[in-house]
Amino acid sequence: RGGTNTCVHSSAEIVKWVAESLRPFSIVRDRGFLSLMKTGRPAYFIPSPSTVSRDVKTVFARTRKRIAKLLQVC
Q1: What separation in angstroms does the CA of 63 have from each of 4, 57, 72?
Q2: What is the pTM of this model?
């Protein structure tokens, strides 16, 4: 149960790791990465490279808006 929430959580963690570690989006299809991520959890959700790319861009846009709002002079 709660599979969607688990997928969203695992996807968010992968997006964060890819962005912070400056990894290519395609790393989520790397055999070694997949093996590591699924060790002990074969059903672990791994998003596609295009999903990771889209999500990194979304996070960037939201963060940029937040920072712009914080920097506004009243």
Answers
A1: 24, 10, 14
A2: 0.80
